[in-house]
Please model this.
Amino acid sequence: MLESEANELVDASESIRVSQSLKARLLTHNRNSFLYHLHQDPVRFESKKRQREEIQELLKSAEGHVSKEEERIIMAEVKEEIADYLRKREEHEKEAISPLERYNLISQDVDSAIVAIDRLIAINRSHMSSLTQQVHQQNRKSNRLSLLVFGLGIVLVSGVMIGVFLLITRPLATISQTISNYKEGNLKERVDAKGLNEVQVIASNFNSMADWLEEKRQDQLRFIASIAHDLRNPLNSMSMASEVLMGQSQEDARELSKIIFHQVRNLDRLVGDLLDTTRIEAGQFDLNLSENDIGGLIKNAVGLHQTSSNLHEFQTHLPTDPLLCKCDSSRLSQVLNNLLSNAIKYSPNGGTITIKASLEGDEVQVSISDQGIGIEPQDMENIFRPFHRAKNTRNAIPGIGLGLSASRRIIEAHKGRMWVASTSGKGSTFYIALPLK
Ligand code: ADP
Model:
């Protein structure tokens, strides 16, 4: 399409160029003829002859560029007018008239030929301008088409990218987030991944594995709870028997039964704690919320532990105003007691135990620091997992590894946070942050 229009444009502009040369030759031929007759100069005769030949050649060339019917008609007129001029000139040259008279007679024929040539030029000019317009329109169309193709390309590429995002990237990110939440102890986390089949298979495998682990964990906790429960019955009867024994008169029997009685009490407390922590670990506990002064709870807990060790000095830093916070006071005391007894237990050489509490924004922050054995970096997060005990304590210091996981569950049930900072061999600081409401 564009190629044929380009050819037509070349033809039209060539035709204009040839027509203008023809016009010029015609005028110089007329003038030369006049001057020849005026001066009878043979050089003028020769150039007059040559110009006549050139006029014929140019006419032929102009005919070669004719492309439209309308142009063909005008071309025929041009040929006729020029032939007329040449013929009349020959005729008038034979007549015995003055050069000026001849010039005047012939001028009308020259003018008619020139007018015909001008029409040929005009029609080619208008043809050229309509062709240029067509080319512009085509350009605009093809620009619009390119824009459309480009737009479609962008839509297609974006579609593919959105598809990859929806089918692969987002589901994989969901799976990865769930796995890291699970790793942090949110054992109820499951993946709801949509997307490619393969991604869904990974998600459902993860879910089955987590379900299986959760089942095992519940079995383990049920097992511990049932042992604790079974231990409690003989403990109760031993406790009652020793109480009866204590009432007997013999001094030795009384002393012996006192020892049994205290040991049974200790065991009973231990079993009670075990039962409670397994229930917390299994998520089977409710909070009894009320407004409490955290400072007061800390003072009570410190009071309980202060007398239990001669090796440790307790330092408490509390603000003068009460630190009021909505919480379950007995559960929070349980956490504080657990952290304080750990601070004593894991600093066997004694040292200072520092307890601080302050208002930080819309949270109450509590920290309990000791100067004990500290925690290795690789154990820092694991110690909050149930039954996990750090290597340096496993065989050296008694414990079952449920206190911290139960404490963190209690704090998280309050929508709070619990974390630790420690330097192995130098001591540890456990932190609690609780929202005010
Ligand atoms: P338990 O004390 O019965 O082992 P916990 O859940 O309270 O159980 O603690 C888990 C583990 O964290 C402990 O076995 C010990 O390795 C480590 N740990 C806890 N508190 C401290 C502390 N204050 N200093 C050093 N290690 C600690």
Summary: The first strand starts at residue 290 and ends at 293. Residues 338, 342-343, 346, 370, 372-375, 383, 389-390, 393, 399-405, 428 surround adenosine-5'-diphosphate (CB under 6 Å).
